[in-house]
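Customer escalation, tier 2.

The customer says the design service returned an amino acid string that "doesn't look like it belongs to this structure." They asked us to rerun it and document both sides in this ticket. The original structure tokens are below, unchanged.
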């Protein structure tokens, strides 16, 4: 259509073609989001288990005896 200046007090109606096809969300749905959250939860659980094992192993070590120079 023709140019409509910013000082004009009117509106123009145009026909705009709609997009065709589908989005990735329509194609795949929610499962990629659920899979990503599951991976994060599993990684967090693995890291928590590692820290607990390290802490338990460190507490089982005998403490060092210090002679204080005697």
């Amino acid at each position: 259509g023709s140019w409509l200046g910013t000082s004009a007090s009117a509106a123009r109606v145009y026909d705009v073609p709609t997009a065709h096809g589908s989005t990735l969300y329509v194609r795949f749905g929610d499962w990629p989001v659920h899979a990503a959250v599951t991976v994060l939860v599993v990684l967090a659980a693995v890291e928590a288990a590692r820290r607990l094992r390290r802490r338990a192993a460190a507490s089982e070590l005998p403490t060092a005896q210090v002679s204080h120079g005697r």
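Tier 2 assessment: The sequence is consistent with the input. The first helix runs from residue 24 to 28. The chain has a mean pLDDT of 84. Sent an explanation to the customer and offered a walkthrough call.
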